Amino acid sequence: MIGKIYGTGSYVPQRVLDNDDLSKIVDTSDEWIRERTGIGKRHIAGDETTSFMAGEAALKAVEQSGIDPEQIELILVATSSSEVIFPCAACEVQKKVGAVHAVGYDLNSACTGFVLAFNTAQAYISAGIYRTVLVVGAESMSNMLDWTDRSTCILFGDGAGAVLLCAEEGTPAVMAAHSDGKKGAALTCLSRHSKEWEKSDKDSYIHMNGQEVFKFAVRKVPEIIKEVLAQTELTLDQIDYFILHQANRRIIEAVAKRLKTDISRFPMNLEEYANTSAATVPILLDEMNRKGELERGQKLMLSGFGAGLTWAACLFEW
Q: What are the structural domains of the chain?
């Protein structure tokens, strides 16, 4: 069995902060940010919460699918920035979409979160445990930023994306995932409940060693894509799209170069949304789906990478 995507949805806040706006806050410029990241603007939550955005994206996915919400059996929300510790964001989504028979829980793996949640859903479906699963990635990254830190505040935005998976007969999705906790210090954000945070409230904001994260992503993403392909009889040329976490244009271009694959098969939307962490992949999937760029039978490779350090990939048929 495989989980086929029956519906997609996304939500981004109305408030937009472009690079020129940021240049009034920190020492930067539109040219500097675009050259190093490919980002032009980001959407920033106002009154919207993480669970609210997750619910809005989920509603759109369910509506497009035509599936009765009462048929949904499992809800997974990937987030590291929920406004609620409990009830979990997944239960808030359940309430909003009316999935009264579903069980829900959250996964926290930062920027890799959605791909890991998607893999989890595929594993449940392949095992015959659930047949209809709602997977959401939602983040309010702006709440975790030090807006005086140029190295991080230019990179992130807020938003949510969702997919609704339904079981069908077919070849199961092919997956791989890894973590390296020894290198976790490259990208951190302490809880405000941590005793370590008491030493400095600055520790509750995102801290990143940009060079280390870049080198990690450029090395590990091609490796895991090849690892997934090695489990099949497919070649790189047979993959229609490589849908990567939208962290940095340079990272995506470097991955394409290492794989010796044309950059046109690596869609990007980070110019509009920046890095929305666990939401980047489902937002991109929803955009491509609603533009009619995805067709049944196409082979898609998802890959996420980020704090942990953690990285994952999934190959499946649209």
A: 2-168 (3.40.47.10), 174-317 (3.40.47.10)
